[in-house]
Amino acid sequence: MDLHEKINYLLDEKLIKKKEFVNRVRALEPKLKTTGEIPSEQTIYRYISGKREIKVELIPYFAEALNVSIEDLFSSDIEYSCQNNVRYSKEAREILNLLAYMPSSTTKMILETMRRYKELHDDTKQSLTK
Predict the structure, then answer these.
(1) What are the domain boundaries of the chain?
(2) What's the predicted TM-score (pTM) here?
(3) DSSP3 helix / strand / coil % (the chain, rounded to 5)
(4) DSSP codes joined into one string, 47-107
(5) Do 30 and 38 meet the contact criterion of CB atoms below 8 Å apart?
(6) What pLDDT is stored for residue 85 in this prediction?
(7) Contacts with 3 (C-beta within 8 Å, 6 or more apart), sequence order
(8) d(Cα 58, Cα 39) in Å, to the nearest integer?
(9) How many CB atoms are located within 10 Å of the residue 1 CB?
């Protein structure tokens, strides 16, 4: 996942509108090394849309505006899953990380429950297509 995709993922996950993010970044008054100026709103929109490469000096400001660490922006913990290109929510990632601590009896119970939900979903989907 590219950096601009990660930023957009975090914006969605944190329910931050792009305009709010742009305003947060600009309020931090980051200055570009090449111009000594704060990037314009339009320039920041281009960065987060992937139309311009994000300048390295802006990364700490983007992280602060998102209330994450710089490391979080490059962490593989915040990625698309390999299954069907579905994004895992923060809660789903936490569940996945905590599975190793679950007793096997609880794992079996949850697995059966999830299988029943899947069957219900598949049955509902199939009945709708008839």
Answers:
(1) 3-74, 90-129
(2) 0.64
(3) 65, 0, 35
(4) HHHTSSPPPGGGHHHHHHHHTS-HHHHH-TTSSB-SSTTPBPPHHHHHHHHHGGGS-HHHH
(5) yes
(6) 47
(7) 54, 59, 73, 74
(8) 9
(9) 14
CATH number belonging to domain 3-74: 1.10.260.40
DSSP state of 37: S
Alpha-carbon dihedral of residues 127, 88, 93, 111, nearest 10 degrees?
20
Tens-place pLDDT, residues 106-124 = 989 999 999 999 999 888 8
End-to-end Cα distance, the chain: 38
Cβ atoms 28, 65 nearer than 8 A: yes
Tens digit of each residue's pLDDT (9 = 90 or more) over 15-37: 899 999 999 999 999 999 999 99
The number of angstroms, rounded, from the C-alpha of 58 to the middle of its chain's C-alpha atoms is 19
